[in-house]
Amino acid sequence: VRGLRFRGVLLAMVAKGSTRPTNRDDGSCCDDDNDKCLGICLQGFLSLLVAGCCGVIYLLIIPTWVGYNSTTGISHAIGFGAVIGMMMTAYVQTSRTDPGSVPEGYVPDELLDENGELISNVTQRESVIKSGTVKYCKACDMYRPPRAHHCSTCGKCVLRMDHHCPWVNNCVGAANTKFFVLFLLYATLACFYYALLVFFFLVNFFKGKTLLHMKDLGAWLGLILCTVIVVFCLSLMVAGLFGWNVWLVARNETSQENYDKEVASAKARRPVRHPYDLGCVRNIKAVMGPHPWLWLVPVGPVGNILRYEKNRDFDEAEMKPLHGDLAV
Predict the structure, then answer these.
(1) Which helix or strand (DSSP H or E) is residue 121 part of?
(2) Would you call 165 a catalytic residue per the annotation?
(3) pLDDT tens digits, residue range 115-129?
(4) Cβ burial 248-269 (10 Å sphere, 16+ → b, else e)
(5) What percent of the chain clears pLDDT 70, i.e. is strictly above it?
(6) Of 165, 191, 226, 280, which one is the catalytic site residue?
């Protein structure tokens, strides 16, 4: 129970900047109409922060400390640029990629006969629907696939939905979870890289080992302090989110499914397994793609996002205590 409360607090804290838990009454992931405006503001803030950090690195630290004519200076210029480039590529991919829309006219397999046609027997269809194995979204007026949820901000059901993230102004779902995880990874690396460069620059500055004089530092001091403070605060949040998402990917869970599982475990007073847990390696491949050499690159299509393989050793009876879409 304490673990469940801790996870609930964690999800609530993250919701302020990145995650909105699902409203179980209407299947909605977020109910604030201002999320899109907030997302645009956060995107603008992030753009200014990246521009400020790049200005400090490329216009101050490298030219006045190690210089562009040295191997160290060129290495830092290329290294920091590469990390920022990968971070922004993953960010744009997360923001611009459709997280996974339900095809129009989708009908779940449970309502199809052996010929792939809709079951003609109305009583039989109603029996399947009442059993809870099939979900129907009233807002979209259509059937909802397993692991999908409705997002009121995006105005649609999202496949394998994790949450609606205002930082990317988009939902994180089946088609862009990989990009979101990579964005968190490279954002974490960029934060620590920037902090280390600023730290060693200031150490060498006060030792008199830079080309910058004390009177010239004043013009940069405000920008340095602002970016360092913001980067430090963001690094704590981003690093924590990255670790949390890596843990979820390794278990093939979304944040909402993890919460459902914890609730079910508390109700059943025993651990409840996740039906889509296929083992660590296969779980990672299900999100990051089948080719390990592309796991750290923000490119590549995903597999079948309408149907998901379940663990063969999983007993459907374990899902009875669940209250939510994890049961399908």
Answers:
(1) none
(2) yes
(3) 777 777 777 777 777
(4) bbebbbbbbbbbbbbbbbeeee
(5) 82
(6) 165
